[in-house]
Q: What sequence folds into this?
């Protein structure tokens, strides 16, 4: 024997199933020209998987197929698969598919002596030859054991059948019901050694999750985990997102958080595109509001947004967000916003993941909001939630979808403690906390971390008003961080102090003015006095002059009179 | 045990006496001339001659020649004997070597414990 083939090379040809995800985990499909056993308990999707293999082969890969049904008639099959959107009758008409019902009823059959199953071979060969089939399904061959008694003949014939199929180069799926000790009830896995797929529908805490596992795949690498899968109106789809590694690209493009002040705290531009954002906080601090703003901003940019709500109905979200000034109704009408409400307990964790992935695949949003993730813990353990979110986040990053998650912190516990499980997966972590003091509760917001950008280290007060959200610098004083009324009081106090100072200044100014006025008045009165004195002096001076003149006049008159006598 | 004297297959579809009313319509499905098929045919002939003389007709169908006929009677095992008439349809598989069981299967002999 040669060494194990590490990569699926040309040595092992594969046959694509066309089932979403299954071809990925099998590295290209089922082994071509060989038989694959699909086993599992009743109702876990064996027949659907097998039929999808044939239908996809016929429609997409131009490989015709034969479906040997041991349990259902042709009409029943056609009816059952009609609900999955498979028109089997049309395919039969186009000679791409042959449905062959094998009817076996023990009570109708008497066994006498030696026989073989050549009849089955002949019928199978005939069916294969009529359409040149490359694919065959036998669902489920173990029914032979309930219809016929001679087990040793059956085992020999089943072994011969697989050999025969292999010799003809036919890719086949054989289904088998789960047994108690072995994979299948009759242990037919011992005849099929190339590829074994196990389907499972497990119920944990009342919640069922379908899982698929490649138990063995000889000669090919394959995913070894249990992959959850969906069985819905589009058939079966496997979600192999455990296999995604850390290979996603990192965008430098920034997207707004919808709150300008918050953008400013995040290096001025908001989040990175394709990053993951966690908004955590205690109840009622406005986590959903931040999420809604983000969604709103995305839609306003013309991007599409998927809002997965785990707590509120779509109508409730729309109403609540309208109260803070965000009108989601036109966005929903335009198809930019899809609100998908789902209680976590409606189905298992993996199912949530698969549903989300499927919706995101179909809708191709640029922004995804999950509100809140903490509720998921009710359907799985913390480890499971973490594993699921890791896969979701990784996948969203690969798709370059920006995702925002809200998380409820239990009051009283350390803010950062409960999120440890998931916070390391997040690129940006906003922490909302309420600050209780002086008989009231206020909201504070700060950026706990934000990878790859300089971000504010400040606590901002987060106000939700009917006109939207406001971020206010919290009052940082000697008494610590003050918010709400205390902040207002402090601000008022500051204002009064400032006003008082202002008043004093004005008072002083006025006083000075008065003094100057008084001084000026004094100067004026002195000036007046001086002027009066000057006037008086002038008057006296002129009086003196007059007296002098009068004196002179008198002297002249006297002289004149004396002159007369003496002359 | 009687020895079989006519082991080769005669593929003419109608056997038995035709002057009598045919009440038993039997169909034997074979695939080629394998020993099992040959044995089944001769065993059947013996049983019919002994118990249904003049009232039976055997149709021999070789699926290798007419593979499409296997579907109608839901043939899986080879050889298979199908009692088409009288109704209800009965199937007996194997080389018919156990005469007792063949007779029970054909309702020619009641099951000892029953009835």
A:
């Amino acid at each position: 024997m040669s060494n194990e083939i590490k990569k699926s090379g040309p040595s092992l040809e594969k046959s694509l199933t066309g089932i979403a995800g299954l071809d990925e985990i099998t590295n290209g499909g089922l082994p071509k020209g060989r038989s694959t056993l699909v086993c599992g308990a009743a109702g876990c999707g064996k027949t659907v998987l097998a039929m999808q293999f044939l239908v996809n082969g016929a429609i997409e890969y131009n490989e015709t197929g034969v479906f040997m049904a041991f349990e259902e008639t042709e009409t029943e099959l056609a009816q059952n698969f009609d609900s999955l959107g498979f028109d089997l009758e049309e395919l039969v008409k186009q000679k791409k598919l042959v449905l062959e019902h094998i009817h076996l009823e023990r009570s109708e059959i008497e066994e006498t002596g030696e026989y073989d199953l050549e009849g089955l071979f002949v019928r199978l060969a005939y069916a294969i030859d009529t359409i040149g089939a490359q694919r065959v399904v036998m669902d489920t061959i173990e029914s032979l054991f309930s219809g016929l008694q001679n087990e040793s003949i059956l085992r020999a014939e089943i072994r011969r059948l697989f050999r025969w199929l292999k010799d003809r180069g036919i890719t086949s799926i054989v289904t088998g019901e789960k047994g108690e000790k072995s994979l299948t009830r009759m242990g037919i896995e011992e005849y099929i050694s190339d590829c074994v797929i196990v389907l499972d529908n497990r119920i944990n805490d009342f919640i069922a999750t379908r899982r698929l596992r490649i138990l063995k795949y000889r000669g090919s690498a394959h995913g070894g985990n249990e992959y959850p899968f969906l069985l819905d109106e589009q058939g079966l789809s496997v979600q192999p997102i455990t296999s995604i590694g850390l290979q996603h690209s990192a965008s430098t493009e920034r997207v707004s958080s919808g709150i300008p002040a918050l953008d400013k705290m995040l290096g001025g531009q908001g989040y990175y595109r394709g990053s993951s954002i966690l908004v955590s906080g205690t109840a009622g601090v406005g986590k959903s509001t931040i999420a809604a703003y983000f969604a709103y901003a995305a839609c306003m940019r013309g991007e599409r947004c998927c809002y997965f709500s785990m707590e509120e109905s779509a109508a409730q979200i729309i109403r609540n967000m309208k109260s803070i000034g965000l009108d989601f109704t036109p966005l929903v009408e335009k198809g930019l916003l899809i609100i998908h409400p789902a209680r976590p307990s409606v189905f298992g964790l993996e199912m949530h993941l698969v549903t989300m992935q499927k919706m995101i695949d179909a809708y191709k949003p640029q922004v995804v909001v999950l509100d809140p993730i903490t509720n998921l813990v009710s359907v799985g353990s913390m480890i499971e939630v973490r594993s699921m979110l890791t896969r979701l986040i990784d996948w969203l990053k690969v798709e370059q979808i920006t995702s925002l998650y809200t998380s409820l912190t239990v009051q009283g516990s350390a803010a950062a403690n409960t999120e440890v499980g998931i916070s390391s997966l997040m690129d940006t972590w906003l922490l909302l906390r309420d600050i209780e003091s002086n008989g009231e509760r206020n909201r504070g917001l700060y950026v706990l971390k934000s990878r790859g950008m300089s971000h504010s280290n400040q606590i901002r007060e987060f106000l939700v008003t009917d006109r939207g959200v406001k971020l206010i610098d919290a009052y940082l004083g000697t008494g610590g961080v003050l918010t709400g009324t205390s902040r207002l009081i402090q601000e008022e106090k500051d204002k009064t102090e400032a006003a008082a100072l202002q008043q004093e200044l004005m008072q002083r100014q006025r006083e000075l003015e008065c003094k100057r006025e008084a001084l000026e008045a004094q100067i004026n009165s002195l000036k007046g006095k001086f002027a009066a004195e000057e006037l008086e002096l002038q008057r006296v001076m002129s009086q003196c002059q007059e007296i002098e003149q009068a004196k002179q006049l008198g002297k002249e008159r006297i002289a004149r009179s004396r002159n007369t006598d003496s002359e | 045990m009687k020895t079989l004297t006519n082991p080769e297959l005669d593929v003419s579809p109608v056997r038995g006496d035709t002057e009598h009313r045919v009440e038993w319509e039997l169909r034997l499905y074979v695939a080629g001339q394998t020993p099992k098929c040959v044995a089944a045919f001769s065993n059947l002939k013996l049983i019919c001659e002994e118990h249904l003389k003049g009232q039976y007709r055997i149709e021999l169908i070789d699926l290798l020649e007419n593979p499409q006929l296997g579907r109608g009677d839901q043939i899986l095992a080879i050889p298979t004997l199908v009692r088409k008439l009288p109704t209800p349809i009965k199937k007996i598989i194997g080389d018919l070597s156990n005469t007792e069981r063949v007779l029970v299967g054909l309702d020619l002999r009641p099951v000892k414990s029953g009835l």
Remarks:
- Residues 255 and 271 of chain A are 5 Å apart (CA to CA).
- The interface with chain B takes residues 100, 102-104, 108-120, 122-123, 125-126, 144, 147-148 of chain A (CB under 8 Å).
